């Protein structure tokens, strides 16, 4: 392809993979909402758009709920947490993967229906939500959000003789795609993971109660004991009669855990499917060094998700590891964007270089992924300005070529840099001396200690669950599409 750098820069400007969501739940603890707050704080990396907590107040016999836009620390304070009384609660941090980023779509979603009071927090994408919603609306259902998660509650509210557990199981049998979710009722908490196990979900214990989390790192913060991962296709019910497990699988499904959780999204101190995330990333770096060795003076990570892959590259290659990029951890959600006063401002405000470490050096830069290429290009410019003699880019996953429909907001595939340029042309566009992507086979090998199979659709286009070709983030907000959906 003969696209100029400026045209590519315009095309890929907004192409960046975004976070997904995080869920957390507590049963049987006097400080349930406070523990949920800290659990969400540990899961903040999974979503920064909104946060919410719902709890059941046994004295008032109703749900207390508080949701807001922004980070967990911005949404909640001592006053709001003290209003969330009860010994069980659920929480959610959100990045919108279906539906706009508005307070209306913040979770948990709380409803009162024929099955009683229910609150739901969901991580993942339901790929048949549009068809289910159209069918329910034709029967008279009135939706309050444009989130795919709400269809689960509407399915549960349909008139049947089943109890809450039975209606929850039947609702989940009708939805397709990815869901790791927690449900709060007046009598207890339920948790479920889709039959393919796209998104992580784990079970823990604290004193005489139980906790459920998207990742184990949240257990460490509140001193909870990790018990096990919730299995793909498993539903957990926790109430006065204890903990019970049920199976959602009517037929055997292959596991399809999102491998990008290991590459980028999950926190390095989390353990998923028997494999520590930081260990997986170190092994990716080692494999990358075997595939693309180069004579250099230092290995520099792109913080934070590139740290451990760079460490693995350094260990394998015996080239010194040096964290020359310094990250500003105090960036707000918005800032005033200058015109041309400060070049590459959006990059420089996040990462600054220790120039003395770079000057005259042959530098290997290790990043977790290159999706749009604009920030990687700006980093190379910064390294050259700092006096780097050579800049070699190494990426700890294969090129991204396909969108994710199971809970990650990837950009349109036409905007992905790897779909516009061959690797050698990407290298020229970025201004690097060389570039190397981890191969698919090496990525799988690096994660071989996990007790699961993987979804690699964003790299291969091999989707485990079929979806409508019109599916995108705002599908439930296009009324004309819902009206014509067949």
Automatic annotation (TrEMBL):
Residue stretches making up the Glutamine amidotransferase type-2 domain: 21-241
Pathway: Purine metabolism; IMP biosynthesis via de novo pathway; N(1)-(5-phospho-D-ribosyl)glycinamide from 5-phospho-alpha-D-ribose 1-diphosphate: step 1/2
Family to which this protein belongs: In the C-terminal section; belongs to the purine/pyrimidine phosphoribosyltransferase family.
Cofactor(s) the record lists: [4Fe-4S] cluster; Mg(2+)
Name used for this protein in its record: Amidophosphoribosyltransferase
Binding of Mg(2+), residues: 305, 367-368
PANTHER family on file: AMIDOPHOSPHORIBOSYLTRANSFERASE (PTHR11907)
Biological processes per GO annotation: 'de novo' IMP biosynthetic process; purine nucleobase biosynthetic process
UniProt KW keywords: 4Fe-4S, Glutamine amidotransferase, Glycosyltransferase, Iron, Iron-sulfur, Magnesium, Metal-binding, Purine biosynthesis, Transferase
Pfam family, one: GATase_6
Organism of origin: Methylacidiphilum caldifontis
Active site, per annotation: 21 (nucleophile)
Reactions accelerated catalytically: 5-phospho-beta-D-ribosylamine + L-glutamate + diphosphate = 5-phospho-alpha-D-ribose 1-diphosphate + L-glutamine + H2O
InterPro entries: GATase_2_dom, Ntn_hydrolases_N, PRTase-like, PRTase_dom, PurF, PurF_N
E.C. number: 2.4.2.14
Function: Catalyzes the formation of phosphoribosylamine from phosphoribosylpyrophosphate (PRPP) and glutamine.
Highest taxon above the source species: Bacteria
């Amino acid at each position: 392809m003969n696209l100029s750098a400026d045209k590519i820069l315009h095309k890929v400007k907004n192409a960046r993979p975004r976070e997904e969501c995080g869920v957390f739940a507590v049963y049987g603890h006097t400080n349930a909402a406070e523990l949920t707050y800290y659990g969400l704080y540990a899961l903040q990396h999974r979503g920064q758009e909104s946060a919410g907590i719902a709890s059941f107040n046994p004295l008032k016999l109703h749900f207390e709920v508080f949701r807001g836009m922004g980070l967990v620390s911005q949404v909640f304070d001592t006053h709001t947490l003290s209003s969330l009384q009860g010994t069980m609660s659920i929480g959610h941090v959100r990045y919108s993967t279906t539906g706009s980023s508005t307070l209306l779509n913040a979770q948990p979603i709380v409803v009162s229906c024929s099955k009683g009071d229910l609150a739901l927090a969901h991580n993942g994408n339901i790929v048949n939500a549009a068809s289910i919603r159209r069918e329910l609306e034709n029967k008279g259902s009135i939706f309050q959000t444009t989130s795919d998660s709400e269809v689960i509650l509407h399915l549960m509210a349909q008139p049947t003789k089943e109890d809450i557990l039975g209606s929850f199981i039947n609702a989940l049998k009708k939805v397709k795609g990815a869901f790791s979710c927690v449900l709060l009722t007046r009598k207890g908490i339920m948790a479920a993971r889709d039959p393919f196990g796209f998104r992580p979900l784990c079970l823990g214990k604290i004193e005489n109660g139980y906790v459920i989390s998207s990742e184990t790192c949240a257990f460490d913060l509140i001193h909870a004991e990790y018990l096990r991962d919730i299995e793909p296709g498993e539903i957990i019910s926790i109430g006065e009669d204890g903990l019970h497990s049920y199976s959602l699988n009517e037929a055997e499904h292959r596991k399809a855990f999102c491998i990008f959780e290991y590459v980028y999204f999950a926190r390095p101190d989390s353990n998923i499917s028997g494999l520590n995330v930081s260990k997986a990333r170190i092994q990716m770096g080692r494999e990358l060094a075997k595939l693309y060795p180069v004579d250099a003076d230092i290995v520099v990570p792109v913080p934070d998700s590139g740290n451990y892959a760079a460490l693995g590259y350094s260990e394998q290659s015996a080239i010194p590891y040096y964290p020359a990029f310094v990250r500003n951890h105090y960036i707000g959600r918005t800032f005033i964007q200058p015109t041309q006063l400060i070049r590459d401002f959006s990059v420089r405000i996040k990462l600054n270089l220790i120039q003395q470490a770079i000057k005259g050096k042959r530098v290997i830069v290790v990043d977790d992924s290159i999706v749009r290429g604009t920030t990687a290009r700006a980093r190379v410019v910064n390294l050259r300005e700092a006096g780097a003699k050579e800049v070699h880019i190494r990426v700890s996953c294969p090129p991204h070529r396909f969108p994710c429909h199971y809970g990650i907001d990837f950009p349109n595939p036409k905007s992905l840099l790897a779909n516009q340029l061959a690797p050698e042309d990407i290298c020229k566009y970025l201004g690097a001396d060389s570039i190397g992507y981890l191969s698919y086979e090496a990525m799988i090998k690096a994660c071989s200690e996990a007790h699961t199979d993987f979804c690699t659709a964003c790299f291969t286009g091999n989707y485990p669950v079929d979806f409508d070709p019109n599916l995108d983030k705002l599908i439930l907000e296009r009324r004309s599409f819902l009206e014509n959906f067949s």
